[in-house]
Design a protein that fits this description.
Length: about 775
């Protein structure tokens, strides 16, 4: 026969199956022989012409009109036939079917064992509804007679598994709280009045998310009782909750015995509403008397409860006491029933004139973990990187390719710092989707820091080891690899976890300890946030070990910043690599283990990183601060050329003949280091003049350049000036006369020809000059 109306099982509405469409309606006679326990019955389903009612659907088989003295059990004379969606759902509904018969402990144990093997897997709403029906059938049996301790423990463990906050299927499934309350009262079947709680029987506390304490007590035992939970949280019953009968009447005292239960939830999984993180420290209390339901208390009685917080600091006057409204499946925060008694930095104390389910909400900051020093360090670091990048973009007149790569890494570092700061500051207010997106962006930028370290090291290998001065031709390749490789790693992580393990984005990227949006799974974090940076750093280490084992000729070049020797600049880059790596080493360890000393080290290295970038790359490498030494006008074959600035090595400006390359710097160094005997062997007369160099009019004198340079009795500044002039001549391809005299010495006089060293051969490292 058809169902008369739809039935609500759990949160699933079981629709009636339609006769003539979903099944063939039939009627007949079943004959049982004496001693026969079962008879086969054919039922015809017609799925090809199924009705439009959604699955699951149900119809019934009814036994009636027994003859020959046969009697029908009133509970088992009707069987439900349920048409379900798939084989997995059929398993759960099959467990329900087995409970429609007289039950014993062995049968209950078998069913609960099968359920426990399946309960850890995410289930659909239909399957959870079948699970609730299994619980209700077992609990109903437990109200009739005490079930075994093993079966109590099995049912308790199944409820615990459904409270796991990492599950998505049971979030907001508040009907399970009603099942838990009924289960708590069923533990008291045949328990003597006044007896203390017995662990494993009426007190169940082995689950990390659920503690149940049930008592069959006299009113005087219940009144004023203080239930103490985990972490110092507590709930106290009013002193005058129940009327105490006269002590002279034992019969009246026994009749006044009450069943009371206290349940402590350390997960808000079943009470999760659209508001994220509403329960303080994920703590929820339930207190109730059997057969009294959720009701207001009379005579101004109030239940007092305290909820503590361990890792966060409560913001004063921002707390609220909440009461669960089962009908609306939401929290009530008005002051009609609950009020805040006290909120300190460690706990919130509430008073509620209602017997129900309670919690507290409070605005907390993370200053005990991420304190003012953390935010100050982040500000210093962000400012340092931002100023260095702006200085490079706006103030750099001559940008070397290695410096461009360094700026790319700084952009990645700046983005990582900003996203990390936002994640810490807003993680508690962000939705799951927003937190997941922020965690993905932060993971990508974090990996980009280390990919740019590796690419810079490869560029240094090409320049310093392979002597390739044109690595800028590989700029597009470097750009794609450095920004693309982290994107590939992030995409691979998402594809594998979503495709192979069916994780949601909120499971891949979510809150870590409720503080920061990143990768909550430790194995995924180790594989992608620790292994890849480690591989990049190993590559950097190997490359520079080889570079420093080579001949030291590369130290005299200027491959990072124009006019700045590699001997200084390369170590500065390596120091920055080390600071970034150490900063995020302690940042990652603190994110995982939450030790305060790790946060201290992270803050220290973050401050050092920001100050280092500010001083070295914003102040010392600001090209606007480099001094100009002199300017020249040139006459070639009698035609004047436009004047152009020519600065000393390290000034960053080009000469008339072109840029100051590494060869120029090496040439100057070589000239300064040549011994006296080589100077004597290098004398070569006969240079002819072909052009005249004139100092600019504002300098007030004319400087004729010869083929040689002044001897050692000249002051260092004049010597450096003549070296500049010699390089200028070499770069412009001109020769100076050996008969011209040097004018404008430091004392204003002239230098005799006997004091002039003639043009000699100079060792040049790079033959292309």
């Amino acid at each position: 026969q058809e169902l008369r109306k739809a039935e609500l099982v759990g949160q699933t509405l079981v629709m009636p199956a339609t006769a003539g469409m979903d099944f063939v309606k039939s009627e007949g006679i079943l004959t049982f022989q004496p001693g026969q326990s079962s008879v086969a019955l054919d039922i015809v389903l017609t799925p090809e012409q199924a009705s439009s009612n959604p699955l699951p659907k149900r119809f019934q088989v009814v036994l009636y009109n027994p003859t020959a003295g046969t009697q029908l059990n009133k509970d088992y004379g009707i069987a439900n036939i349920t048409i379900v969606t798939d084989a997995n759902s059929q398993f759960f509904w099959g467990l329900v079917d087995q409970l429609y018969q007289p039950l014993d402990d062995d049968l209950i144990n078998q069913i609960l064992q099968k359920l426990q093997n399946k309960i850890n897997i995410e289930a659909t709403g239909e399957q959870l509804s079948a699970v609730i029906e299994v619980f209700e059938k077992v609990i109903k049996e437990g109200e009739k007679r005490p079930v075994s301790d093993t079966n109590r423990e099995l049912l308790y463990n199944n409820l615990c598994a459904l409270l796991d906050p990492t599950r998505k299927d049971t979030k907001g499934f508040s009907q399970l709280a009603e099942v838990t309350e009924t289960f708590a009262f069923s533990l008291l079947t045949d328990v003597e009045c006044g007896s203390p709680g017995q662990r494993g029987k009426t007190v169940l506390d082995t689950c990390q998310y659920l503690t149940i304490k049930s008592y069959h007590w006299y009113p005087q035992q219940i009144n004023g009782h203080r239930f103490v939970g985990k972490n110092g949280d507590s709930l106290k019953v009013p002193e005058w909750l129940l009327e105490v009968p006269p002590t002279s009447s034992l019969t009246t005292a026994d009749e006044s015995c009450q069943h009371v239960q206290f349940t402590e939830y350390s997960s808000q999984q079943w009470f999760q509403t659209s508001v994220k993180g509403i329960a303080l420290n994920n703590k929820i209390f339930s207190a109730s008397l059997k057969d009294r339901g959720s009701r207001p208390l009379v005579d101004k009685n109030e239940i007092i409860y305290q909820i503590h917080t361990l890792d966060n600091r409560i913001v004063p006057h921002r707390s609220a006491c909440l009461l669960w409204n089962q009908a609306a499946e939401s929290w009530l925060s008005d002051n009609q029933f609950c009020r805040v008694v006290e909120d300190t930095s460690n706990y919130v104390e509430c008073a509620c004139s209602h017997m129900s389910i309670y919690t507290a909400s409070a605005q907390t900051d993370s200053l005990s973990l991420y304190n003012e020093a953390f935010f100050a360090a982040a500000f210093i670091c962000i400012s340092g990187f931002a100023l260095a990048i702006l200085c490079h973009l706006l103030c750099s007149r001559f940008s070397m390719f290695a410096a461009k790569l360094l700026m790319h890494m700084m952009v990645a570092c700046l983005g990582t710092q900003i996203s990390f700061l936002i994640s810490i500051y807003l993680s508690r207010e962000l939705s799951d989707e927003s937190c997941s997106a922020l965690g993905l962006v932060m993971h990508y930028l974090y990996l980009c820091q280390f990919s740019w370290m590796l690419i810079q090291s490869i560029n240094f290998w090409q320049v310093l080891v392979m002597n390739d001065e044109h690595t800028d031709r590989r700029y597009l390749l470097f750009f794609i690899l450095s920004w693309g490789l982290p994107a590939f790693v992030v995409a691979l992580l998402v594809i594998i976890l979503r495709g192979a393990y069916h994780w949601t984005m909120q499971e891949i990227y979510g809150t870590v300890h409720g503080d920061v949006c990143f990768i909550p799974n430790i194995y995924a974090a180790l594989a992608t946030a620790a292994l890849m940076p480690l591989l990049c750093l190993v590559g950097v280490f190997v490359i520079f070990i080889y570079v420093y084992q080579m001949i030291q000729q590369w130290k005299s070049y200027d491959d990072v910043f124009r006019g700045k020797a590699n001997s200084t600049e390369v170590p500065l880059v390596l120091y920055l690599f080390a600071l970034i790596s150490l900063t995020w080493l302690w940042g990652g360890l603190h994110m995982a283990y939450r030790h305060f000393w790790m946060l201290i080290l992270f803050v220290i290295f973050n401050i050092l990183q920001g100050l280092y970038v500010f001083v070295v790359y914003f102040i010392l490498h600001n090209q606007l601060c480099w001094p100009v030494k002199a300017s020249y006008s040139v006459e070639i074959n009698g035609h004047p050329s436009p004047g152009s600035a020519y600065l000393t090595p390290g000034s960053g400006a080009p000469s008339v003949g072109g840029e100051i390359s590494k060869s120029t710097q090496n040439l100057i160094t070589a000239m300064e280091e040549i011994p006296a005997d080589w100077e004597q062997a290098s004398l070569r007369p006969g240079s002819q003049a072909s052009s005249i160099f004139k100092q600019s009019p504002q300098l007030g004198s004319i400087c004729g350049i010869t083929g040689g340079y002044t001897n050692s009795n000249l002051v260092a500044d004049e010597e450096s000036q003549e070296f500049d002039d010699l390089i200028f001549a070499l770069k412009t391809g001109l020769n100076a006369s050996d008969n011209e005299s040097y004018h404008g010495s430091q004392d204003g006089g002239s230098i005799a020809n006997s004091q002039i060293v003639e043009l000699r051969r100079i060792p040049i490292a790079d033959t292309h000059l």
